[in-house]
Amino acid sequence: MGCGSTVGKVFLVTVNTLFTILGLVLLVIGCLVKFKNDLVTEYAAELFKVIKLDSANYNLDELLGSSAIVFIIVGVVILVVGVLGCLGACCGWRVFLVIYALIVFLVLIAEIAGVVLAALMKKDVDKVIKDGMKKSIVEKYKGDKSQEPVTLAWNSILIEFNCCGVDNYEDFSNATHWNKTFNGQERPLVTPVSCCTEVKGEFPDLTYPSDTSCAESPTDATNNWKKGCYSAIEDFINKYSNIFIGIGVVVAIFEILCIVFAICVCRSVEEGEKMSKFIHILNTDDESNDNPVLDIDFPETDVTLVVEGRKLHVNKAVLSQHSPVFKTMFSGNFKESTQKEIPLQDKKFQDVVEFLRCFYPNMKHDVTESNVLQILPLAHEYQSPLVADCEEFMTNMCKPGTSLTVTTLLDYILAAEKYHLKALLDAAMKFCARVDYYLLNGTTITRSYDFGKSGYTYKHTVDKSISAKFRNIELEHRHTIAEKRIQFLEMYKRRTNNRDPVTEDISLELSQESNQE
Known about the structure:
- The chain has helices spanning 2-35, 37-50, 60-91, 94-120, 122-140, 149-160, 213-216, 229-239, 241-278, 316-322, 324-331, 349-357, 372-381, 386-397, 406-418, 422-432, 437-440, 464-472, 475-496, 512-516; strands at residues 181-182, 185-186, 200-202, 205-207, 293-294, 303-307, 310-314, 341-343, 443-450, 455-462.
- It is an alpha/beta fold.
- The chain is elongated, with a radius of gyration of 40 Å.
Protein backbone atom coordinates (compact mmCIF):
# COMPACT_ATOMS: atom_id res chain seq x y z
CA MET A 1 0.00 0.00 0.00
CA GLY A 2 2.90 2.34 0.72
CA CYS A 3 4.24 2.13 -2.84
CA GLY A 4 0.74 2.23 -4.33
CA SER A 5 -0.24 5.27 -2.31
CA THR A 6 2.96 7.07 -3.34
CA VAL A 7 2.36 6.36 -7.03
CA GLY A 8 -1.28 7.32 -6.53
CA LYS A 9 -0.35 10.65 -4.99
CA VAL A 10 2.02 11.50 -7.82
CA PHE A 11 -0.56 10.45 -10.44
CA LEU A 12 -3.46 12.33 -8.84
CA VAL A 13 -1.46 15.48 -8.12
CA THR A 14 -0.03 15.58 -11.66
CA VAL A 15 -3.29 14.86 -13.47
CA ASN A 16 -5.46 17.11 -11.34
CA THR A 17 -2.96 19.96 -11.42
CA LEU A 18 -3.35 19.89 -15.20
CA PHE A 19 -7.15 19.73 -14.81
CA THR A 20 -7.06 22.65 -12.38
CA ILE A 21 -5.03 24.74 -14.80
CA LEU A 22 -7.35 23.79 -17.69
CA GLY A 23 -10.46 24.62 -15.66
CA LEU A 24 -8.98 27.94 -14.54
CA VAL A 25 -8.09 28.86 -18.12
CA LEU A 26 -11.60 28.03 -19.38
CA LEU A 27 -13.17 29.95 -16.50
CA VAL A 28 -11.02 33.03 -17.13
CA ILE A 29 -11.77 32.92 -20.86
CA GLY A 30 -15.49 32.57 -20.17
CA CYS A 31 -15.49 35.48 -17.72
CA LEU A 32 -13.54 37.68 -20.12
CA VAL A 33 -15.94 36.88 -22.94
CA LYS A 34 -18.93 37.51 -20.70
CA PHE A 35 -17.81 40.64 -18.85
CA LYS A 36 -15.05 42.10 -21.06
CA ASN A 37 -16.73 41.60 -24.41
CA ASP A 38 -15.11 44.55 -26.20
CA LEU A 39 -11.60 43.42 -25.32
CA VAL A 40 -12.20 39.83 -26.39
CA THR A 41 -14.01 40.81 -29.58
CA GLU A 42 -11.01 42.89 -30.67
CA TYR A 43 -8.58 40.00 -30.31
CA ALA A 44 -11.05 37.44 -31.66
CA ALA A 45 -11.54 39.52 -34.80
CA GLU A 46 -7.80 39.38 -35.45
CA LEU A 47 -7.80 35.63 -34.83
CA PHE A 48 -10.69 35.15 -37.25
CA LYS A 49 -8.73 37.01 -39.92
CA VAL A 50 -5.77 34.70 -39.41
CA ILE A 51 -7.94 31.62 -39.94
CA LYS A 52 -9.68 33.24 -42.94
CA LEU A 53 -13.00 33.98 -41.31
CA ASP A 54 -12.92 37.69 -42.09
CA SER A 55 -14.75 37.22 -45.41
CA ALA A 56 -17.80 35.83 -43.64
CA ASN A 57 -18.27 38.95 -41.49
CA TYR A 58 -19.52 36.94 -38.52
CA ASN A 59 -21.25 38.68 -35.60
CA LEU A 60 -18.58 38.11 -32.99
CA ASP A 61 -20.66 39.48 -30.14
CA GLU A 62 -23.36 36.91 -30.78
CA LEU A 63 -20.95 34.07 -31.46
CA LEU A 64 -18.72 34.69 -28.43
CA GLY A 65 -21.58 35.59 -26.13
CA SER A 66 -23.31 32.27 -26.67
CA SER A 67 -20.11 30.36 -25.86
CA ALA A 68 -19.24 32.31 -22.69
CA ILE A 69 -21.72 30.48 -20.46
CA VAL A 70 -20.49 27.12 -21.76
CA PHE A 71 -16.87 28.05 -21.01
CA ILE A 72 -17.76 29.23 -17.51
CA ILE A 73 -19.80 26.15 -16.60
CA VAL A 74 -17.27 23.67 -18.02
CA GLY A 75 -14.40 25.62 -16.45
CA VAL A 76 -16.00 25.63 -13.00
CA VAL A 77 -16.75 21.89 -13.13
CA ILE A 78 -13.22 20.96 -14.26
CA LEU A 79 -11.68 23.39 -11.76
CA VAL A 80 -13.66 21.97 -8.83
CA VAL A 81 -12.83 18.37 -9.75
CA GLY A 82 -9.16 19.23 -10.26
CA VAL A 83 -8.88 21.07 -6.93
CA LEU A 84 -10.61 18.24 -5.07
CA GLY A 85 -8.26 15.62 -6.53
CA CYS A 86 -5.10 17.71 -6.22
CA LEU A 87 -5.60 18.94 -2.66
CA GLY A 88 -7.02 15.61 -1.53
CA ALA A 89 -3.92 13.74 -2.70
CA CYS A 90 -1.36 16.41 -1.87
CA CYS A 91 -2.65 17.38 1.58
CA GLY A 92 -4.17 14.05 2.55
CA TRP A 93 -7.71 15.42 2.94
CA ARG A 94 -9.93 12.35 2.95
CA VAL A 95 -13.20 14.24 2.43
CA PHE A 96 -11.85 15.78 -0.78
CA LEU A 97 -10.64 12.38 -1.99
CA VAL A 98 -14.01 10.74 -1.30
CA ILE A 99 -15.93 13.49 -3.11
CA TYR A 100 -13.44 13.39 -6.00
CA ALA A 101 -13.69 9.60 -6.34
CA LEU A 102 -17.49 9.79 -6.15
CA ILE A 103 -17.68 12.43 -8.91
CA VAL A 104 -15.36 10.49 -11.22
CA PHE A 105 -17.28 7.28 -10.44
CA LEU A 106 -20.61 8.91 -11.31
CA VAL A 107 -19.13 10.24 -14.56
CA LEU A 108 -17.86 6.75 -15.41
CA ILE A 109 -21.23 5.16 -14.59
CA ALA A 110 -23.00 7.77 -16.71
CA GLU A 111 -20.69 7.05 -19.65
CA ILE A 112 -21.16 3.29 -19.36
CA ALA A 113 -24.92 3.69 -18.97
CA GLY A 114 -25.02 5.95 -22.02
CA VAL A 115 -23.15 3.42 -24.15
CA VAL A 116 -25.31 0.51 -22.94
CA LEU A 117 -28.57 2.39 -23.48
CA ALA A 118 -27.44 3.56 -26.90
CA ALA A 119 -26.75 -0.05 -27.88
CA LEU A 120 -29.92 -1.58 -26.39
CA MET A 121 -32.29 1.22 -27.34
CA LYS A 122 -30.76 2.35 -30.61
CA LYS A 123 -34.06 3.10 -32.31
CA ASP A 124 -35.30 5.21 -29.41
CA VAL A 125 -31.95 6.99 -29.13
CA ASP A 126 -31.91 7.65 -32.88
CA LYS A 127 -35.43 9.10 -32.68
CA VAL A 128 -34.56 11.41 -29.75
CA ILE A 129 -31.41 12.70 -31.46
CA LYS A 130 -33.11 13.13 -34.82
CA ASP A 131 -36.04 14.99 -33.26
CA GLY A 132 -33.61 17.31 -31.53
CA MET A 133 -31.68 17.96 -34.74
CA LYS A 134 -34.87 18.59 -36.73
CA LYS A 135 -36.16 20.95 -34.04
CA SER A 136 -32.93 22.97 -34.27
CA ILE A 137 -33.49 23.34 -38.03
CA VAL A 138 -37.12 24.39 -37.61
CA GLU A 139 -36.42 26.90 -34.84
CA LYS A 140 -32.85 28.07 -35.43
CA TYR A 141 -31.77 27.63 -39.04
CA LYS A 142 -31.53 31.05 -40.79
CA GLY A 143 -29.83 30.39 -44.13
CA ASP A 144 -26.43 30.08 -45.79
CA LYS A 145 -25.22 33.58 -44.87
CA SER A 146 -26.49 33.64 -41.30
CA GLN A 147 -24.09 34.41 -38.46
CA GLU A 148 -26.11 32.55 -35.82
CA PRO A 149 -24.03 29.75 -34.17
CA VAL A 150 -26.54 26.92 -34.71
CA THR A 151 -26.88 27.88 -38.37
CA LEU A 152 -23.09 28.02 -38.75
CA ALA A 153 -22.90 24.54 -37.24
CA TRP A 154 -25.51 23.18 -39.62
CA ASN A 155 -23.86 24.73 -42.69
CA SER A 156 -20.50 23.27 -41.70
CA ILE A 157 -22.09 19.80 -41.31
CA LEU A 158 -23.85 20.07 -44.68
CA ILE A 159 -20.58 20.91 -46.41
CA GLU A 160 -18.18 18.63 -44.53
CA PHE A 161 -20.40 15.53 -44.69
CA ASN A 162 -21.89 16.21 -48.15
CA CYS A 163 -25.43 15.84 -46.86
CA CYS A 164 -28.68 17.78 -46.60
CA GLY A 165 -31.00 17.83 -43.55
CA VAL A 166 -31.36 15.18 -40.90
CA ASP A 167 -33.03 12.58 -43.16
CA ASN A 168 -33.13 14.59 -46.42
CA TYR A 169 -33.81 18.06 -47.82
CA GLU A 170 -37.47 18.01 -46.71
CA ASP A 171 -36.38 18.78 -43.13
CA PHE A 172 -35.73 22.38 -44.26
CA SER A 173 -39.27 22.86 -45.56
CA ASN A 174 -40.49 23.64 -42.03
CA ALA A 175 -37.63 26.03 -41.12
CA THR A 176 -39.52 29.06 -39.81
CA HIS A 177 -36.54 31.46 -39.83
CA TRP A 178 -34.90 30.41 -43.11
CA ASN A 179 -33.81 33.53 -44.99
CA LYS A 180 -33.70 32.51 -48.66
CA THR A 181 -32.03 35.70 -49.80
CA PHE A 182 -28.83 34.89 -51.70
CA ASN A 183 -26.55 37.51 -53.24
CA GLY A 184 -29.10 40.19 -52.38
CA GLN A 185 -32.06 38.49 -54.08
CA GLU A 186 -34.89 36.39 -52.71
CA ARG A 187 -34.60 32.95 -54.30
CA PRO A 188 -37.10 30.03 -54.43
CA LEU A 189 -34.65 27.69 -52.66
CA VAL A 190 -35.68 24.10 -52.07
CA THR A 191 -32.48 23.31 -50.15
CA PRO A 192 -29.75 25.49 -48.65
CA VAL A 193 -27.01 26.35 -51.14
CA SER A 194 -24.64 24.58 -48.70
CA CYS A 195 -26.22 21.31 -49.86
CA CYS A 196 -24.96 21.85 -53.41
CA THR A 197 -22.07 19.76 -54.65
CA GLU A 198 -20.57 22.82 -56.38
CA VAL A 199 -19.56 24.46 -53.10
CA LYS A 200 -15.75 24.58 -53.19
CA GLY A 201 -13.16 24.74 -50.42
CA GLU A 202 -13.35 23.77 -46.79
CA PHE A 203 -15.39 25.43 -44.11
CA PRO A 204 -15.09 28.32 -43.36
CA ASP A 205 -13.01 29.31 -46.42
CA LEU A 206 -15.74 28.52 -48.98
CA THR A 207 -16.69 29.54 -52.49
CA TYR A 208 -20.43 29.32 -53.20
CA PRO A 209 -21.73 28.91 -56.76
CA SER A 210 -23.01 32.14 -58.34
CA ASP A 211 -25.96 30.25 -59.82
CA THR A 212 -28.39 28.93 -57.21
CA SER A 213 -30.21 26.60 -59.58
CA CYS A 214 -28.59 23.64 -57.82
CA ALA A 215 -30.61 24.58 -54.71
CA GLU A 216 -33.73 25.69 -56.58
CA SER A 217 -34.06 22.62 -58.81
CA PRO A 218 -31.85 20.03 -57.13
CA THR A 219 -30.75 16.84 -58.82
CA ASP A 220 -28.57 13.98 -57.64
CA ALA A 221 -25.69 15.32 -59.74
CA THR A 222 -25.81 18.89 -58.38
CA ASN A 223 -27.12 18.47 -54.86
CA ASN A 224 -26.85 16.12 -51.87
CA TRP A 225 -30.58 16.65 -51.28
CA LYS A 226 -31.48 13.01 -50.65
CA LYS A 227 -28.58 12.18 -48.36
CA GLY A 228 -29.35 12.71 -44.66
CA CYS A 229 -26.69 14.07 -42.32
CA TYR A 230 -27.63 11.66 -39.54
CA SER A 231 -26.74 8.62 -41.67
CA ALA A 232 -23.64 10.42 -42.98
CA ILE A 233 -22.40 11.03 -39.43
CA GLU A 234 -23.19 7.40 -38.54
CA ASP A 235 -21.15 6.22 -41.53
CA PHE A 236 -18.26 8.44 -40.38
CA ILE A 237 -18.41 7.01 -36.86
CA ASN A 238 -18.60 3.44 -38.15
CA LYS A 239 -15.64 4.06 -40.43
CA TYR A 240 -13.47 5.12 -37.50
CA SER A 241 -15.21 2.98 -34.88
CA ASN A 242 -11.98 1.30 -33.77
CA ILE A 243 -10.42 4.67 -33.01
CA PHE A 244 -13.48 5.88 -31.11
CA ILE A 245 -13.67 2.62 -29.16
CA GLY A 246 -9.97 2.89 -28.33
CA ILE A 247 -10.38 6.46 -27.11
CA GLY A 248 -13.38 5.42 -25.02
CA VAL A 249 -11.46 2.53 -23.44
CA VAL A 250 -8.47 4.78 -22.66
CA VAL A 251 -10.76 7.37 -21.06
CA ALA A 252 -12.49 4.65 -19.01
CA ILE A 253 -9.16 3.19 -17.85
CA PHE A 254 -7.94 6.68 -16.97
CA GLU A 255 -11.06 7.32 -14.87
CA ILE A 256 -10.75 3.92 -13.17
CA LEU A 257 -7.13 4.70 -12.29
CA CYS A 258 -8.23 8.01 -10.79
CA ILE A 259 -10.82 6.21 -8.65
CA VAL A 260 -8.44 3.41 -7.59
CA PHE A 261 -5.60 5.79 -6.72
CA ALA A 262 -7.99 8.06 -4.82
CA ILE A 263 -9.10 5.05 -2.74
CA CYS A 264 -5.47 3.97 -2.19
CA VAL A 265 -4.41 7.41 -1.02
CA CYS A 266 -7.55 7.72 1.12
CA ARG A 267 -6.79 4.42 2.85
CA SER A 268 -3.19 5.45 3.23
CA VAL A 269 -4.28 8.67 4.91
CA GLU A 270 -6.67 6.74 7.18
CA GLU A 271 -3.94 4.35 8.27
CA GLY A 272 -1.57 7.27 8.69
CA GLU A 273 -4.03 8.92 11.07
CA LYS A 274 -4.19 5.72 13.06
CA MET A 275 -0.41 5.59 13.14
CA SER A 276 -0.23 9.13 14.46
CA LYS A 277 -2.37 7.97 17.37
CA PHE A 278 -0.33 4.83 17.79
CA ILE A 279 2.84 6.59 18.80
CA HIS A 280 1.32 8.20 21.80
CA ILE A 281 3.92 7.38 24.43
CA LEU A 282 3.02 8.20 27.95
CA ASN A 283 5.64 10.17 29.82
CA THR A 284 8.12 7.74 31.32
CA ASP A 285 8.66 10.13 34.21
CA ASP A 286 4.96 10.00 35.16
CA GLU A 287 5.09 8.30 38.53
CA SER A 288 1.33 7.81 38.53
CA ASN A 289 1.65 5.25 35.75
CA ASP A 290 3.88 2.31 36.58
CA ASN A 291 3.16 0.49 33.32
CA PRO A 292 2.89 2.99 30.45
CA VAL A 293 1.62 1.53 27.18
CA LEU A 294 2.48 2.27 23.57
CA ASP A 295 -0.44 1.16 21.43
CA ILE A 296 0.30 0.67 17.74
CA ASP A 297 -3.29 0.80 16.56
CA PHE A 298 -2.58 -1.07 13.32
CA PRO A 299 -5.56 -2.84 11.69
CA GLU A 300 -5.91 -6.43 12.92
CA THR A 301 -3.42 -5.99 15.76
CA ASP A 302 -2.78 -9.50 16.93
CA VAL A 303 0.34 -9.59 19.09
CA THR A 304 1.98 -7.50 21.82
CA LEU A 305 5.70 -6.96 22.30
CA VAL A 306 6.74 -6.30 25.89
CA VAL A 307 9.91 -4.22 26.25
CA GLU A 308 11.15 -2.94 29.59
CA GLY A 309 7.68 -3.60 31.01
CA ARG A 310 5.95 -1.51 28.35
CA LYS A 311 3.67 -2.85 25.64
CA LEU A 312 3.82 -2.44 21.89
CA HIS A 313 0.65 -3.64 20.14
CA VAL A 314 1.70 -4.69 16.66
CA ASN A 315 0.73 -6.86 13.72
CA LYS A 316 2.35 -10.22 12.99
CA ALA A 317 2.03 -9.90 9.21
CA VAL A 318 3.84 -6.57 9.16
CA LEU A 319 6.68 -7.86 11.33
CA SER A 320 6.93 -11.11 9.34
CA GLN A 321 7.03 -9.25 6.05
CA HIS A 322 9.95 -7.15 7.23
CA SER A 323 11.92 -9.69 9.25
CA PRO A 324 12.71 -13.36 8.51
CA VAL A 325 13.33 -13.84 12.24
CA PHE A 326 9.83 -12.70 13.15
CA LYS A 327 8.41 -14.73 10.27
CA THR A 328 10.06 -17.89 11.56
CA MET A 329 9.05 -17.03 15.12
CA PHE A 330 5.37 -16.65 14.23
CA SER A 331 5.04 -19.45 11.65
CA GLY A 332 7.34 -22.11 13.10
CA ASN A 333 6.92 -24.48 16.00
CA PHE A 334 7.92 -21.93 18.58
CA LYS A 335 6.01 -20.92 21.67
CA GLU A 336 5.91 -17.32 20.38
CA SER A 337 3.62 -18.42 17.53
CA THR A 338 0.75 -18.87 19.98
CA GLN A 339 1.60 -16.26 22.58
CA LYS A 340 -0.37 -13.02 22.77
CA GLU A 341 2.47 -11.23 24.52
CA ILE A 342 6.11 -11.71 23.57
CA PRO A 343 8.81 -10.29 25.86
CA LEU A 344 11.91 -8.90 24.16
CA GLN A 345 14.76 -9.29 26.61
CA ASP A 346 17.77 -6.97 26.79
CA LYS A 347 16.17 -4.42 24.48
CA LYS A 348 15.59 -0.75 25.09
CA PHE A 349 12.04 0.44 24.65
CA GLN A 350 12.92 3.58 22.69
CA ASP A 351 15.24 1.61 20.39
CA VAL A 352 12.47 -0.87 19.52
CA VAL A 353 9.99 1.98 18.93
CA GLU A 354 12.39 3.74 16.53
CA PHE A 355 13.10 0.43 14.80
CA LEU A 356 9.37 -0.12 14.21
CA ARG A 357 8.88 3.44 13.04
CA CYS A 358 11.42 2.92 10.27
CA PHE A 359 9.40 0.25 8.47
CA TYR A 360 5.81 0.40 9.72
CA PRO A 361 3.43 1.27 6.85
CA ASN A 362 2.53 4.92 6.39
CA MET A 363 4.91 6.21 9.06
CA LYS A 364 8.30 5.15 7.75
CA HIS A 365 10.97 7.31 9.34
CA ASP A 366 14.14 8.01 7.42
CA VAL A 367 17.45 6.66 8.61
CA THR A 368 19.29 9.65 10.05
CA GLU A 369 22.46 10.41 11.97
CA SER A 370 20.44 10.50 15.19
CA ASN A 371 18.88 7.03 14.83
CA VAL A 372 21.17 4.98 12.60
CA LEU A 373 23.25 3.51 15.44
CA GLN A 374 20.06 3.07 17.45
CA ILE A 375 18.26 0.85 14.93
CA LEU A 376 21.26 -0.96 13.35
CA PRO A 377 21.68 -3.54 16.15
CA LEU A 378 17.99 -4.49 16.01
CA ALA A 379 17.96 -4.48 12.22
CA HIS A 380 20.94 -6.86 12.22
CA GLU A 381 19.47 -9.12 14.89
CA TYR A 382 16.15 -9.44 13.09
CA GLN A 383 17.77 -9.62 9.62
CA SER A 384 15.88 -6.55 8.47
CA PRO A 385 16.48 -4.82 5.11
CA LEU A 386 17.14 -1.73 7.21
CA VAL A 387 20.71 -3.01 7.62
CA ALA A 388 21.40 -2.07 4.00
CA ASP A 389 19.73 1.32 4.51
CA CYS A 390 21.87 1.99 7.58
CA GLU A 391 25.05 0.99 5.79
CA GLU A 392 24.19 3.17 2.79
CA PHE A 393 23.49 6.17 5.01
CA MET A 394 26.71 5.81 7.04
CA THR A 395 28.74 5.22 3.88
CA ASN A 396 27.42 8.45 2.39
CA MET A 397 28.26 10.24 5.62
CA CYS A 398 31.89 9.14 5.30
CA LYS A 399 32.58 11.61 2.55
CA PRO A 400 34.29 15.01 2.62
CA GLY A 401 31.88 17.82 3.30
CA THR A 402 29.70 15.92 5.79
CA SER A 403 29.32 17.00 9.40
CA LEU A 404 30.90 14.03 11.14
CA THR A 405 32.66 14.10 14.48
CA VAL A 406 35.60 11.88 15.37
CA THR A 407 33.37 10.07 17.88
CA THR A 408 30.76 9.31 15.21
CA LEU A 409 33.39 8.26 12.68
CA LEU A 410 34.89 5.78 15.13
CA ASP A 411 31.41 4.51 16.04
CA TYR A 412 30.79 3.85 12.34
CA ILE A 413 34.02 1.88 12.05
CA LEU A 414 33.21 -0.19 15.13
CA ALA A 415 29.69 -0.83 13.79
CA ALA A 416 31.10 -1.86 10.41
CA GLU A 417 33.41 -4.37 12.13
CA LYS A 418 30.70 -5.76 14.38
CA TYR A 419 28.05 -6.19 11.70
CA HIS A 420 30.41 -6.98 8.79
CA LEU A 421 29.55 -3.92 6.69
CA LYS A 422 32.41 -3.98 4.20
CA ALA A 423 31.36 -0.99 2.08
CA LEU A 424 31.04 1.16 5.18
CA LEU A 425 34.35 -0.02 6.57
CA ASP A 426 36.19 0.77 3.33
CA ALA A 427 34.61 4.22 3.10
CA ALA A 428 35.29 5.04 6.75
CA MET A 429 38.95 3.98 6.58
CA LYS A 430 39.40 5.96 3.36
CA PHE A 431 37.86 8.94 5.12
CA CYS A 432 40.26 8.47 8.06
CA ALA A 433 43.23 8.85 5.70
CA ARG A 434 42.41 12.54 5.43
CA VAL A 435 42.04 13.08 9.18
CA ASP A 436 45.00 13.94 11.40
CA TYR A 437 46.08 10.84 13.27
CA TYR A 438 46.15 12.74 16.56
CA LEU A 439 42.44 13.46 16.20
CA LEU A 440 41.63 9.80 15.65
CA ASN A 441 43.36 9.07 18.98
CA GLY A 442 41.32 11.76 20.71
CA THR A 443 44.27 14.11 21.05
CA THR A 444 44.12 17.87 20.63
CA ILE A 445 47.19 20.07 20.57
CA THR A 446 46.93 23.61 21.88
CA ARG A 447 49.70 26.08 21.04
CA SER A 448 50.35 29.14 23.20
CA TYR A 449 53.15 31.70 23.37
CA ASP A 450 55.29 31.67 26.54
CA PHE A 451 56.76 35.14 27.02
CA GLY A 452 59.03 33.88 29.82
CA LYS A 453 60.64 31.38 27.47
CA SER A 454 60.23 33.62 24.42
CA GLY A 455 58.70 30.79 22.43
CA TYR A 456 55.67 28.61 21.80
CA THR A 457 54.57 25.83 24.12
CA TYR A 458 52.35 22.93 23.10
CA LYS A 459 49.79 21.21 25.32
CA HIS A 460 48.41 17.79 24.51
CA THR A 461 44.88 16.97 25.71
CA VAL A 462 43.54 13.45 25.34
CA ASP A 463 39.84 12.52 25.26
CA LYS A 464 40.00 9.10 26.93
CA SER A 465 36.63 7.94 25.56
CA ILE A 466 37.74 8.60 21.98
CA SER A 467 41.13 7.09 22.62
CA ALA A 468 39.44 3.96 24.00
CA LYS A 469 37.21 3.69 20.94
CA PHE A 470 40.18 3.93 18.63
CA ARG A 471 41.97 1.19 20.57
CA ASN A 472 38.86 -1.01 20.26
CA ILE A 473 39.19 -0.97 16.47
CA GLU A 474 40.76 -4.18 15.25
CA LEU A 475 44.52 -3.96 14.96
CA GLU A 476 44.44 -4.93 11.29
CA HIS A 477 42.12 -2.03 10.52
CA ARG A 478 44.19 0.42 12.54
CA HIS A 479 47.19 -0.61 10.47
CA THR A 480 45.14 -0.12 7.30
CA ILE A 481 44.15 3.38 8.43
CA ALA A 482 47.80 4.21 9.14
CA GLU A 483 48.87 2.90 5.72
CA LYS A 484 46.17 4.93 3.97
CA ARG A 485 47.24 7.99 5.94
CA ILE A 486 50.86 7.55 4.83
CA GLN A 487 49.79 7.05 1.21
CA PHE A 488 47.70 10.19 1.35
CA LEU A 489 50.60 12.23 2.80
CA GLU A 490 53.03 10.93 0.19
CA MET A 491 50.59 11.71 -2.61
CA TYR A 492 50.05 15.19 -1.21
CA LYS A 493 53.81 15.84 -0.98
CA ARG A 494 54.37 14.69 -4.56
CA ARG A 495 51.57 16.85 -5.83
CA THR A 496 52.63 19.99 -3.98
CA ASN A 497 56.36 19.28 -4.38
CA ASN A 498 57.16 20.91 -1.05
CA ARG A 499 57.34 20.13 2.62
CA ASP A 500 54.59 22.49 3.80
CA PRO A 501 52.07 21.23 6.33
CA VAL A 502 49.16 19.31 4.88
CA THR A 503 46.34 21.74 4.04
CA GLU A 504 43.83 19.24 2.71
CA ASP A 505 43.15 17.48 6.00
CA ILE A 506 39.53 17.28 7.01
CA SER A 507 38.90 19.24 10.17
CA LEU A 508 36.65 17.32 12.57
CA GLU A 509 35.36 18.07 16.04
CA LEU A 510 36.10 15.38 18.59
CA SER A 511 32.44 14.92 19.51
CA GLN A 512 29.08 16.60 19.54
CA GLU A 513 29.61 17.42 23.19
CA SER A 514 32.66 19.49 22.36
CA ASN A 515 30.61 21.36 19.75
CA GLN A 516 27.99 22.22 22.33
CA GLU A 517 30.57 23.41 24.82
